Amino acid sequence: MPARQRGLALITAMLVVAIAATTAAYLSLDQQIWLRQAQNLSDRAQAEVVRAGALEWAITILAKDAKDNKSDDLTENWAKPLPPLAVEGGQVTGRIADAQARFNINNLVRNNAPSKPDIGTFRHLLLSLSIDPNLTDAVVDWIDADSDKLPYGAEDIDYLQTKIPYRAANQPMQSVDELRLVRGFTPEIVEKLRPWITALPQPTEINVNTASKEVLGALFYTLPPPAIEQLVSQRPYTDPGKLTQILQGLATGTALPQAFYGIQSSYFEVVVETRFGRYQRTTQALIHRGSNDNASRILWHRQLLPRIATTTETASPAENSGVSSDRNI
Q: What CA–CA distance (Å, rounded) separates 122 from 98?
């Protein structure tokens, strides 16, 4: 009988030890989770402060450039990326890109009417990418305020007949991703177009000093490829009149298409990447540079996820994704 009692006591003691160990493990895990969450919140707060500071840096450098120059090109300080800069507890990098180096899809409608020069540019851009140029009509119908349908366009009556009915926006596009709502545009087409287009709040000129050969080829579609190469090789241009003379010389007898272009920009995209501990954040912002320091402002900013390549495409820079998120790594 005493032996049996000793056995029960031993089993009871083992159970007590097991319960105590399990409880301690759970308490330790909860504490680790709490500490991790607290650290993440602290890292996020630091990242937010540094992000705001980096955007102010971008506004300052763009404002100084406007005072020093009457043109914008890729040799200027704003076009040089900010190398990884160590800050307390982390690091930050940044880069500024000229948003007017790409075709602004809101150019398709100027003064409440379809813009023939911009329609020509966009059609030739689509052609260069092996995309049906007739899709241009659908974009114009999406942006313009009327309900008159172009030959290859679409208006409310077409969108209301879809599986999930909706209406045409009848206003300028807010982002490139909005193209996915336009009839005929698949996600694949939008991603193919994304590097060459943008959506700015008002019609703009294309900056010849910063635009790619693909965009310039669509803008001056009567010029042969060698002439576009020569146009790029002679950059930067600081005198609009001289640029016009050079373009006329490159045309060699062919008429230049009517187009909206210039050598100065007002809209810039900024990408800021911050890393604090396990927390990484990539922010994209659009800055409108006004005529003076007080007029420059951030129009919007958003957080980006890195894009994941599919089987039919390769990954592109994070700033092209347009997907908002913060990320802990």
A: 19
pTM of the prediction?
0.81
CATH number of 2-101+266-328: 2.40.50.140, 3.30.1300.30, 3.40.50.2300, 3.20.20.10?
3.30.1300.30
User: How many residues make up the chain in this entry?
Assistant: 329
Assess contact for 256 and 267: CB atoms under 8 A.
no
22: left (phi over 0), alpha (psi -120 to 50) or beta: alpha
Mean pLDDT highest for which of 43-52, 80-89, 233-242?
A: 233-242
Half-sphere exposure of 148 (CA within 13 A, CB side): 5
Pick left, alpha or beta for residue 277 (phi over 0 → left; psi -120 to 50 → alpha; otherwise beta).
left
Q: Looking at the domain 103-198+209-257, which fold is it?
A: Ribonucleotide Reductase Protein R1; domain 1 (1.10.40)
What mean pLDDT, rounded, does the chain reach?
A: 86
Please, are residues 194 and 176 in contact by the beta-carbon 8 Å criterion?
yes
